[in-house]
Amino acid sequence: MTGFAAEIGPPILLTLELAAVTTLLLLLMGTPLAWWLARSRAPWKEAVAAVVALPLVLPPTVLGFYLLVLLGPDGPGGWIAGLWGARTLAFTFGGLVIGSVLYSMPFVVQPIRNAFEAFGERPLEAAATLRASPLDAFFSVALPLARPGLLTGAVLGFAHTVGEFGVVLMIGGNLPGSTKVLSVAIFDYVETMQWGRAHAVAAGMAAFSFAVILLMTLLERRSRAARA
Amino acid sequence: MNAAREPIRCALAGRLGRFALDAAFEAPASGVTAIFGPSGCGKTTVLRCIAGLQRIDRGRISVAGAVWQDDRAFVPPHRRPVGYVFQETSLFPHLSVKGNLLFGEVRARKGGAAMALGLDEVAGLLGLGPLLDRTPAALSGGERQRVAIGRALLSQPSLLLMDEPLSALDRRTKDEILPFLERLHAGLALPILYVTHDMAEVERLADHLVLMEAGLVTASGPLAALQGDPSLPLAARRDAAVSLEAVTGDYDPHYGLLALDVPGGRFTVPSAPTPAGERRRLTVQAADVSLALRRPEGSTISNVLPACIREASPLNEQELVVVVSLGAAGEGARVLARVTRRSWDQLALAPGKEVFAQVKGVALAPRRR
Lengths: 228, 369
What we know:
Chain A is mainly alpha-helical. Chain A has helices at 2-39, 45-53, 60-71, 76-82, 93-118, 122-129, 134-145, 147-162, 166-171, 182-191, 195-227. The longest helix of chain A has 38 residues, at 2-39. The N and C termini of chain A lie far apart (50 Å). The mean pLDDT of chain A is 87. In chain B, a hairpin with a 2-residue loop joins strand 12 (257-262) and strand 13 (265-270). The A-B interface holds A 122-123, 125-134, 136-137, 140-141, 144-145, 147, 226-228 and B 51-53, 76-84, 86, 88, 90, 92-94, 103-104, 107-108, 111, 137, 151-152, 155, 161. Chain B: Keywords: ATP-binding, Cell inner membrane, Cell membrane, Membrane, Molybdenum, Nucleotide-binding, Translocase, Transport.
């Protein structure tokens, strides 16, 4: 069993690292985007929203394929990688992060946008008449009121990144220590007929997902009770 | 002229969606100015434009000498020293009552505003002391509205805007809050624009009135003058009334009757013991006033005042609304009387005629402070 632990340790750490970095980036980018989607009156904002939501329905392989083209040596990703002397962003941790961010984007943006829309115009108008500038009101009123949505978005984004497979396989490959994450590890074990190990990882991930969903439901119920 | 004494000037014209607004009025720099009109006449829009929450194409707004909007300038809402009390509760649910109250206060302080009102004073004025550590969710509707008023006051406004602050509340809660509003009115120099469609609130609170209908200002002026103008729709209402500023006089402890002096006359009303020299507001309904040629005898009506007919205008097929001014020479306050056309003809009443006004009932506003 120690062999298994040594074998599965790096993919677990890598998975958690990828999910954490992805969630952080998604919160930083997704919150302003959700704010814009919730408040803008631009007629084309729903087109932007549709693009953000695409990963919900697109086969991961389609997204992975385009990412492979974009991140590869002949795409803009290759050009960027050239800045530090690399040949490509594909099959790197950075490439995985880019893929995960795009793939999990709707799971983070949608709950935050809903939260921003739920409290409406009134609290922000009240803040404005109380001398809060728009930026001040965003941080002192909008973000605290959207907290349940931010929490849901963060948990969903994290969990969804942990569970992604198709995109990772297309652009990450299976390089131990840099792109071999848990979902790929299971695939590996099945390919090589190590059913026992596949079982252990699969059961672990099922338990993790269950815990996440349960935690989220409980958090949501608590925040609703606090407000009622 | 002292800038702070300059009236509030407001001229707004333009379209907002399908709604056309053309409203211009001035309001004095102190006291309560009620903006009164039916639902959907644009009262709230006027208030929102003054706060800067809505922008109308052609608007000129100046308050205490500062221009908030004209052809070139539009001061954003957070740079306008207004307090705004919304119709429904608008407290921040993530902050305690105290956090809500101080939200505007700390920002006003940082902005270098003159801190005229402190937390203790406002909490005392509105009875908020016991609520400070609660969350808005744990407050009743009336308490929330009081906190909202306190929060607006603590942002150190030079103008307080109130958008039907009582209309979302039930009768009992309204009666609980009105005395607080009367205290604000009596205790603060701050001008208040008060939007309402409830005449009873106007009669109790307002000094000045702006009448609106279908996006237009139809009249504006001192409350009693507008109430007593038979050319305006107010005098034709079933509940037409005139509000008078009275000063308390002698109190008769044996019968529990209080004398109240108004220009040109003295009323006697049942009341709890009250010291002399207090300012109180009386409301006299047109339906409670009848006219007689001689001082009637053997009547239970105790308020019979010499008066002089000023003018009359038909109310409907059967009735007229008559403006009389109190005092034998007709030099005093004006009240309305509703009389039938038959009585008017039988008594040969006419403008200039000296009569006796019998006042069956007088509403005395509760004591302020």
